[in-house]
Amino acid sequence: MNNYLRYWGKAKPADHNTGSPCHLLPYHCLDVAAVGACLLDGSSSFGRSVAGALGLSDHQLQSIFSYLLAIHDLGKFSQSFQALASPEAEVVKKPDVGFSYDVPGGHAALGWVLWRRSDVFKDNRVAICGWPEQAPPRRAARRAMEALLETSFGHHGQPVEAGSRRAGADFLKEDELAASSFAMDVARLIQPDWPAGLMADESWSEKLRGVTWQLAGLAVLADWLGSDQSVFSYVTEPMSLEAYWQEYALPRARLQVQRLGFDHPRSATVFPGVESFFGFKPTPLQQWAEAVELSSTPQLFILEDVTGAGKTEASVTLAHRLLSKGLAHGVYFGLPTMATSNAMYSRISTFYQRWYDSEETPSIVLAHGAQKLHEGFQVSVIPGQPQDSNYLPEERSASAVCNQWFADSRKRALLADVGVGTVDQVLMAVLPFRHQSLRMVGLAGKVLIVDEIHACDDYMLTLLCAVLELHARQGGYAVLLTATLPLEMREKLLNAWHKGLGVVTEQTLLSASFPLATSLSRESMAETPLPTRSSVARALAVEHLDQSSQALDLVVGSAQQGQCACWIRNTVDDAIEAYEAIRARVDEPDKVLLFHSRFTMADRQWIESQALDWFGKRSGYQDRAGRILIGTQVLEQSLDICMDVMVSDLAPIDLLIQRAGRLHRHSRDSSGNLLPIADGGDQRQPPVLRVLAPAFTHTPAKDWVSRFLPGTAAVYRNHGQLWLTLRALISEGVIRVPERARWLIETVYGPEADEAIPEQLQDSYFEHEGERQSQSAMAQFNRLDLDKGYEVSSARSGWQAEVDIGTRLTDEPSIKVTLVQLDDTKQRLLPVADGPHPWEMSQISIRQSLADKLPELPEEWRDLQDALFDKHPGLRFSRLWLGPFDVGDFRYSPSMGLYSPRKAGNDNRSEA
């Protein structure tokens, strides 16, 4: 029996004493290698872009990657690791307990210790790697090998390094010999097909670093799938590596990959045309999407058109055509907010199955709306695994990490055939979060559709540009949607795609038309001016209100006349203040609805549903009459609602245009009932957007905004842009789209706009510009250096857990607060929400300083908290708030959300 068969690789927890107590280390390594081989099988879409980028055949990449995975756990041959468990298996030798397992990075880092510090490995490197004897490796080849090893040794979700640790601190000489003997036998078994000529080429090493990100993600996935006891049951019976590989590892790996749907891309249907697929005649933008030439190389589309022009259907048209041609195998929709992702999911879930052949069962997942989660997906992709014994509290087993990662629907959505979620989940792929590489794998080969891209601040825009660069490198396709995009932002997005294609020259914009469809591939760039659908082209009158009482009177009066009205405020506390004032003045307070970000997911979904029932496309007079909606910025993009009357607090011009898109959104008769499209235009009184803003003056005081709307002044800090917005609206007297949309945007955001800002507001302008540059610089600092490849130094800010660094840069971090209650026996903490996924549905995301003002969990219930965290590890990253919730300085109610009865309207940093 080979000595390397006397080491354990996976062990059962102490309280699980049925079946084999452990899985031998070489067998676990072969399990993972076999999964990797199946993931990179010729029929699978995984790795195709990697093989193409490296000039390798599919077989070459498969054999090399399988070998790398077979040695991913070399560090477990150490005495210090073997002493972490004592499985009662006769074949496993007893470790020397005198070794201390205290190395940063755990056993993954010990793999590097062996490779770099063990004389046994140094002396046998050619045989260990399976390199041809007649072609000893040059320096470039060794560097390429180490770049590849980064991906396998980093299988716990982030790169590791050996530091200054000596091999003798963890390994006996017999351990080093066992590990090297195993590696050499594995090389003979798998026979990695090294491209000897390419590996000696320094330029090939450069290309290799660019694709190590995707290989690292596949290594994580292979390790997780290969650690599933339900498929790879423990084996302690000694046998040859060849026998185990053929009789156990490969058959089980094929079963695992097939049952999870990773064995081949879904077969797509041919796109039949917009009219046939959707049942209506295409808009000009949709006609363009039907006909635009698709490139066989990575391609970016930017679709700019007014609200209601059918941008979503145009993006779906492009995605379906790309699927049909085999240029992509899935789709991910990234939206700016949870509410918009919920709305998009509702639309996509009605037709996504028609993208694929009838015998296919494509998976779809909503990343945030847990209540609507497609339950079948939990079974089809990464189901819960029987758990192995953890190594240390800070180093958990692969099955434990896998279970926790995929318990979060936000992450699981990235590996679905069709995922819908916030754009944050995609942006995290280019940040130094643990397991970010798995997000890259989920993104690879998909059509990335990002809606409302104008909603990105400078921090998010910089990260989005990094994602586009990455996606182009991975051979992907992307579709960006917007109604209000400044030219400067469009140029940055196009240049990011160019960089990903490896094109050095920055792209110069040729067209300032609107609407506009832009296509960029390696071969060409085309900007196509388009007309818009006649039914959404309109002139929307603007009226300036300079007293809050005017807004209050207008909203209440409109409801009393049988109309429905909406007031969009810029802070949560301002919205709550208006909500309470309006309820006090109307005869039926229950007809007033409040919507902002400080609701639990359960209440938020109820409010969304109620808003759609009252104000949605299918609402009629009986639903709408006398109803009032008070909300914050969540209404800008979130819901397909149609209001008779709208008031908005002053905001930058692009946001006002977005808000105005909810005013007379659908054609209705004079009572508010929906009209068939054939009946022509809207029969209500012409729409008017009322904007609550301070009185306009050409010489405003420094506190022009803050004196009148302090919350608005705190949220939108560039008061010069607010002044420019109000000046443009007063000058025009109307929002005319599409003809004047570009002019309005550039009047506020264009390169010459700052010259028109009054001197008294210049300070806020320059302060804001400084913040913008700071945001971009911070994003550049936080984002991964993709050129360096998957290594520790690629993270300038250091590799971190997912709770430490965010995709949105605010004054302070946001945290999740989970509302809990005691059960009747006071023996358990329970979520306040019922139904599926009650813990997710009981959470609110708020800023840190506000969360700190909530009452601490009483000491007497800390044991219950510890028990809860043991059962639901993900809750450790949230703060528990124990009811009752109707007392104290801060309260919670399903109708008002989280609020302070003493300070409503006064906290100017309130979330939207």
UniProtKB/TrEMBL annotation:
Gene3D superfamilies: 1.10.3210.30, P-loop containing nucleotide triphosphate hydrolases. The keyword Nuclease applies. GO terms for molecular function: ATP binding; hydrolase activity; metal ion binding; nuclease activity; RNA binding; RNA helicase activity. Residues 18-225 form the HD Cas3-type domain. It comes from the Bacteria. Keywords: Antiviral defense, ATP-binding, Helicase, Hydrolase, Metal-binding, Nuclease, Nucleotide-binding. SUPFAM superfamilies: P-loop containing nucleoside triphosphate hydrolases (SSF52540). One of its GO terms (biological process) is defense response to virus. In the N-terminal section; belongs to the CRISPR-associated nuclease Cas3-HD family. PANTHER family: CRISPR-ASSOCIATED ENDONUCLEASE_HELICASE CAS3, DEAD-BOX ATP-DEPENDENT RNA HELICASE 47, MITOCHONDRIAL. This is CRISPR-associated helicase, Cas3 family. It comes from Marinobacter persicus.
